[in-house]
Amino acid sequence: MITQGKLSLPTRSWRELYTAALFETEKDRIPSRIADAERAIVARARELFASGGDTIEEDQALDDALYALRALQSCLEFRVAA
C-alpha cells in the first residue's frame, strides 16, 4: 500500500524505518522519520509480546533502536535550544 509517495508503516519493517531515520539528511524530515520508526518499533514489540515466543534477540534490538532514536531526538532538541 502506497500513501503520499511512501510505503505505509505495516508494509515497511521497523528496521527499514529505523535506518531511514538514522540516515535522513534533510533536517526537517528527521522528526517524522523518528516518529515513524518509533511507531513501527512499538508495534513490533507488541507483536512479539503477544506471540509469547523466545524473542530475546529481537527484543534487545528493539530496545537498542529506541535508545538510539531517543538519543538522536535529544541531539536535535539540543541543537534547536542552543
Low-confidence stretches: 1-8
- Rough outline: elongated
How many angstroms does the end-to-end distance come to? 40 Å
The helix content is 55-70%
Topology pattern, helix = H, strand = E: EEHHH
Count of distinct strands:
2
**Describe the biggest sheet?**
2 strands, antiparallel
Structural class: mainly alpha
Strand order of the largest sheet: 1-2
Our estimate of the beta-strand percent is under 5%
Oligomer state equals: single chain
What is the structure about, briefly put?
The chain is mostly helical and 82 residues long.
Describe this structure in words.
This protein has helices at residues 14-22, 30-51, 56-81; strands at residues 2-3, 6-7. By secondary structure, it is mainly alpha-helical. It has one domain (2-81). A two-stranded antiparallel sheet has the order 1-2. The longest helix is centred in the C-terminal third of the chain and has 26 residues, at 56-81. The protein is elongated and about 40 Å long.
Question: What are the key terms here?
Answer:
82 residues; mainly alpha; elongated; disordered N terminus
How does the SSE layout of this entry go?
Blueprint: E1 2-3, E2 6-7, H1 14-22, H2 30-51, H3 56-81
Antiparallel strand pairs: 1-2
